[in-house]
């Protein structure tokens, strides 16, 4: 776990797929193409989540047990254009320098990982990426577990990673200290030595790993919960507008409440975030859906899954509701505040461009 002062504030730019800053940006994509992509993404995500919640947890014998087998995520898959990306700075090199990597922020999985240099050694495997593989042997703060603690993760769409858990220093822009940077030592992450991603065709590919934010004990929010109060928030700005302001992922003291908000309890299922679904409405009119449909024993989980890429509604027989045209960005101009200590979700309308 992390050892640092209490009451930290931390803010990361959350790069949406339709931003020119995103490695997944598609130039000149039409609204119709975007809607079709989001709908396809929703259907793929349902299957992946069904796979995840049919799994059992198997400890790997280390101090930090991980889920084994097929663990889905809305990140590196056949339809990656719906993902949110953050820049993460890892390691300690000469002159206190670090290496920066673009990782997909994923609230449905827990492990933080990136490809490490050892993937190039005999017996290892790397997928092509634009940046350098993390040179763990050169980092002054890289600390492997002793004895070695292996991990294996496989995601929907065929992406997989295996390697060894280690502790490292992660460096972020500081908003609440006298230093321009906030260093968080002893963050547990996966140093990937055998990795594959069907989406990585050549060295232009810029997705370099995953920034896990689920309730799993290895997730970033769980590792810094003592310092951040177990709170993180995001607030999506309107997409597709020219020169749109950035969205932010905030932690701890950097989180400001919206003018008005509601608080509901979170249901944790396999480390994912759920809320109980009571009903749906169209144009302000409730549909009065039979509760036996919403809470049918035929499905493996109930209610509403909250995901960094969107909200998915589950019904008996596999039916689902796709909200368009915003699709997975139906959370635009709402601030969502997760509290993993209290297991609550607070949300309210917000001008995310000004107060996100």
Textual characterization of the structure:
- By secondary structure, this protein is mainly beta.
- The protein folds into 2 domains: 9-235, Beta Barrel (Cathepsin D, subunit A, domain 1); 256-355, no CATH class.
- Helix content is 11%, strand content 32%.
- The chain has helices at 31-52, 220-223, 225-228, 291-294, 352-355, and strands at 9-14, 85-90, 99-106, 112-115, 143-144, 150-154, 160-173, 181-196, 209-212, 231-235, 247-252, 262-265, 267-269, 272-275, 281-282, 285-286, 304-307, 310-314, 320-321, 334-339, 344-349.
- The strands form 4 sheets. It has a 6-stranded antiparallel sheet with strand order 1-11-10-20-21-12. Strands 2-3-9-4-8-7 form a 6-stranded mixed beta barrel.
- A hairpin with an 8-residue loop joins strand 2 (85-90) and strand 3 (99-106).
- The protein is globular and about 60 Å long.
- Mean pLDDT is 77; it is low at 1-5, 53-82 and 309-328.
- This is Peptidase A1 domain-containing protein.
- Belongs to the peptidase A1 family.
- One of its GO terms (cellular component) is extracellular region.
- Residues 84-356 form the Peptidase A1 domain.
Short description:
The protein is mainly beta. The chain is built from five helices and 21 strands. A six-stranded antiparallel beta sheet has the order 1-11-10-20-21-12. Strands 2-3-9-4-8-7 form a six-stranded mixed beta barrel.
